[in-house]
From TrEMBL:
PANTHER family: HALOACID DEHALOGENASE-LIKE HYDROLASE DOMAIN-CONTAINING PROTEIN 3, PTHR46191. This is HAD-like domain protein. It comes from the Eukaryota. GO terms for cellular component: nucleus. It holds the Pfam family Hydrolase. Gene3D superfamilies: HAD superfamily/HAD-like (3.40.50.1000), Haloacid dehalogenase-like hydrolase (1.10.150.720). InterPro entries: HAD-like_hydrolase_domain (IPR051828), HAD-like_sf (IPR036412), HAD-SF_hydro_IA_REG-2-like_cap (IPR044924), HAD_sf (IPR023214). Coiled coil: none annotated. The lineage of its organism: Eukaryota, Fungi, Dikarya, Ascomycota, Pezizomycotina.
């Protein structure tokens, strides 16, 4: 039997491809000090992280998925407002200053936290200034490129195996900017439709990642199957994945056992690989009988893709 026509490799972003350049709490402290905020004597990374987590969870409860639903109704400005409130409330907690509702928000965001500080922190985590790639990421994409080149060497277009690479992230649109800033080439879904026109199929051949999909765009977060389904349909466009599922082999890689590992398998992926990063809180919580595979490096993904190429 001929090799499968297409492989979809989906990757998590944070703590799989990249990580905070230095701890987030330290970056918040550094920027706050640059703006000469009157930080209390006990303002350390532990306290900032505690306040950050509290602010993050509160905003997540009030406006799930970065305010996705409210933004659609015109009641929220989305990630910029969402993260602005997290930053503001985090630093407010560190400063121990009650919010003064009578203050002009255009002058100080209503609580003594300068708008410029909030903007700087928001933009810092929109680029390589806030994040770094893991050491195995660039070698991994180099091997992916070599694998794609070997697949493109086939002269039989009808039997060619296509490899599409996507990112699925429980985040907002800044993921795309971060990856680009870190030196990766990112395409878009319109480039990958597997039409008969060979030129159309090869438009994205130089991209490391064909498209990035975030929970804010879709309105669902991993492990919900809808976000995986959305990614699969983008890859299979103009068809739906359900119409051609037997022509695809789906592989997912992430760092969180429940959100990535179980989520992908329950959404119908063929393989779900968990990367054992030290920052992952979910890897040790393996109470499932699902066949999630643990790997030590992104380079361990390549054999699974080669197996998919040769799958009968």
């Amino acid at each position: 039997m001929a090799a499968r026509r297409s492989i979809l490799l989906t990757l998590d972003a944070l703590d799989t491809l990249y990580h905070a350049r230095v701890p987030i709490a330290r970056q918040y402290l550094q920027v706050a000090r640059n703006y000469n905020l009157s930080l209390p004597a006990d303002a350390n990374e532990s306290k900032v992280w505690k306040e950050f987590y509290k602010a993050f969870k509160a905003e997540q409860t009030k406006y799930p998925i970065y305010g996705h639903a409210e933004a659609l109704r015109g009641l929220h400005q989305g990630p910029r407002e969402w993260w602005g409130d997290v930053i503001r409330n985090c630093l407010q907690g560190v400063l121990r200053q009650p919010t003064d509702s009578t203050t002009n928000p255009e002058q100080s965001c209503g609580d003594g936290i300068p708008e410029e500080l909030i903007e700087e922190l928001y933009e810092r985590f929109n680029s390589a200034e806030g994040y770094s790639l893991y050491d195995d990421v660039l070698p991994f994409f180099a091997q992916l490129k070599a694998l794609r080149s070997s697949l493109d060497a086939s002269s039989d277009l009808d039997k060619k195996t296509h490899l599409i690479v996507a990112v699925i992230s429980n985040s907002d649109g800044r993921v795309d900017n971060v990856l680009r800033s870190l030196g990766l080439q990112i395409g878009s879904p319109r480039k990958i439709s597997l039409k008969e026109d060979r030129l159309h199929r090869l438009e994205g051949e130089h991209d490391d990642i064909n498209f990035v999909l975030t929970s804010y765009e879709v309105g669902y977060e991993k492990p919900h199957p809808k976000i995986f389904e959305y990614a699969a349909n983008l890859a299979a466009s103009p068809r739906k994945m359900s119409e051609c599922r037997d022509q695809w082999y789906l592989v997912h890689v992430g760092d969180h056992f429940r959100k990535d590992g179980e989520g992908a398998l329950l959404a119908g992926w063929n393989e779900s690989l968990i990367l054992q990063r030290e920052t992952d809180p979910g890897v040790s919580q393996n109470s499932s009988e699902l066949p999630v595979v643990r790997i030590k490096s992104l380079l361990d993904v390549i054999p699974f893709l080669k197996k998919a190429v040769n799958q009968d």
